[in-house]
UniProtKB/TrEMBL annotation:
Pfam families: Aldo_ket_red. The active site is at 50 (proton donor). SUPFAM superfamilies: NAD(P)-linked oxidoreductase. Keywords: NADP, Oxidoreductase. Belongs to the aldo/keto reductase family. The keyword Transit peptide does not apply. The lineage of its organism: Bacteria, Bacillati, Actinomycetota, Actinomycetes, Kitasatosporales. The record marks 75 as: Lowers pKa of active site Tyr. It comes from Streptomyces pluripotens. Gene3D superfamilies: NADP-dependent oxidoreductase domain. Residues 17-261 form the NADP-dependent oxidoreductase domain. InterPro entries: AKR, Aldo/ket_reductase_CS, NAD(P)_OxRdtase_dom_sf, NADP_OxRdtase_dom. Substrate binds at residue 108. This is Aldo/keto reductase.
Length: 276
């Protein structure tokens, strides 16, 4: 594969770049994920709340690829938090995906106001012990939530999937994850495409390397060591976004992208987000 792996803290290999399917309607998911698999992507990031696990699963099934060649992530939605409800939600997701095991299962948001991400995580540990998930992880967890997990549960999460792009570079979270052996996975790695990809500094670096601004941003993530899951429904962009392993940014380019940080979120604040 053209995408190198990141070795997670439990020895499982995860492609450093995968394909995200948020906001892809279920009816389109099979076509879009098929394009991604044909373009060389071997990691797919979905979630129960995206409503497209079935279309995603169909694309995997018809791809003809061996199951072990594809790394599949899905996420437990907020309203399913709790021990028993997590076990049930997992079965539903796996059935929709048409799979008999999952590669990575994430708690989508900590929802600290519900106060049950610990019980939820214990259900994930049970699924892991039963061999139904190869790796456990979390999403949108702040260091305080990770510290609580570390003191009350036994399996360290392999990844924390957080909002991370040039406008929100998450220096403190990345340093904390590195210290704990948790891989940082970037959601909305392209800043959702809005505005960011038209920034003159990025266009200049893109011209210098004869690449696109999206490729420059993705390459910046890769050189920082982040796992990335860009999304697109446009075949040419799906292909473009994976072509980032045959060139390098120099120190000056990296510094210019890093200079774009504004500590600005596009999505909700994990400390308070409680949609269920
Ligand atoms: P993204 O940063 O990947 O941006 C996607 C958008 O950027 C596209 O819709 C398109 O408008 C534009 N784009 C993509 N490729 C382009 C290209 N080559 N040139 C120009 N424009 C391009 O945004 P995202 O979808 O929010 O995030 C990626 C994935 O992260 C999601 O699909 C989902 O899997 C995951 N995610 C997770 C969470 C979470 O809470 N865990 C939240 C948001 C997203």
């Amino acid at each position: 594969s053209k995408v190198p792996p990141i070795i997670l803290n439990n020895g499982v290999e995860m492609p450093q770049l995968g394909f995200g399917v948020w906001q892809v309607p279920d009816a389109e998911a099979e076509r879009v994920v098929t394009t991604a698999l044909e373009s060389g992507y071997r990691s797919i990031d979905t979630a129960a709340i995206y409503g497209n696990e079935e279309g995603t699963g169909k694309a995997i099934a018809v791809s003809g690829l061996p199951r072990e060649d594809i790394f599949v992530t899905t996420k437990l939605w907020n309203s399913d938090q709790g021990y028993d409800s997590t076990l049930r939600a997992f079965d539903t997701s796996l059935e929709k995906l048409g799979l008999d095991y999952l590669d990575l299962y994430l708690i989508h948001w900590p929802v600290p106001s519900r106060g049950n991400y610990i019980d939820t995580y214990k259900a994930l540990e049970k699924l892991h012990a039963d061999g139904r998930v190869r790796a456990l992880g979390v999403s949108n967890f702040l260091p305080e939530h990770l510290r609580r997990l570390a003191s009350e549960t036994s399996v360290i999460p392999t990844v924390n999937q957080i909002e991370l792009h040039p406008y929100l570079q998450q220096h403190a979270a990345r340093a904390f994850h590195a210290e704990q052996g948790i891989a940082t996975e970037a959601w909305s790695p392209l800043g959702q495409g809005r505005g960011l990809l038209e920034v003159p500094a990025l266009i200049a670096i893109a011209q210098k390397h004869n690449r696109t601004p999206a490729q420059i941003v993705l390459r910046w993530h890769v050189q920082l060591g982040n796992i990335v899951i860009p999304k697109s429904v446009t075949p040419s962009r799906i292909k473009e976004n994976i072509e980032v392993f045959d060139f390098s940014l120099d120190d000056e380019d990296l510094a210019a992208v890093s200079a774009l940080n504004e500590d600005r979120r596009l999505g909700p604040d994990p400390a308070t987000f409680d949609m269920g």
